[in-house]
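QA checklist item 7 of 12: single-chain prediction sanity check.
[x] sequence parsed
[x] length recorded as 168
[x] structure emitted
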Amino acid sequence: VHVHTSDPGAVLSEALKYGSLFTVKIENMRNQHTELSRGAKEEEARRTFSKPYGMVAVANGDGICEVLHDLGVDEVVQGGQTMNPSTEEMIAAIEKIDAQTVILLPNNSNIIMVAQQAAQVYEDTDRTVLVVPSKSLPQGITALCAFDENREAGDNLENMTAALANVK
């Protein structure tokens, strides 16, 4: 079971009602975020970028990954329903892209928060990381179709996010 909570004790107490616990791993996400943020900021201070935009999407399966690459996605993080990638995996994908602005497409409501945490690591750096809160692959593909490399980052974020409402 993978759980995000501000009160791990309550989760452990509830779990113990159902039986013994064999392996427990508790990590402080705030500390992890701070450490990752510090490292990213130091790295960003020394970097120049070769292109204005890059894209990271979360998906699973060779076929959909190929479609996403054809639509301009630079890096695909493996994940989806019940397979939530970590903040660290998102940051690793961002780091592979040599772009000033990186747009993240989580493509699952459970992954939006992870994408937002990864984007926060790049606050106060030379790189901009934006999250389009796509909740499904059809929304992610629709957002990609709304992207225009000739527009400003904020305009693209607005247009791509607005496009999500067109998916039923």
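[x] summary fact logged: The mean pLDDT is 88.
[ ] second reviewer sign-off
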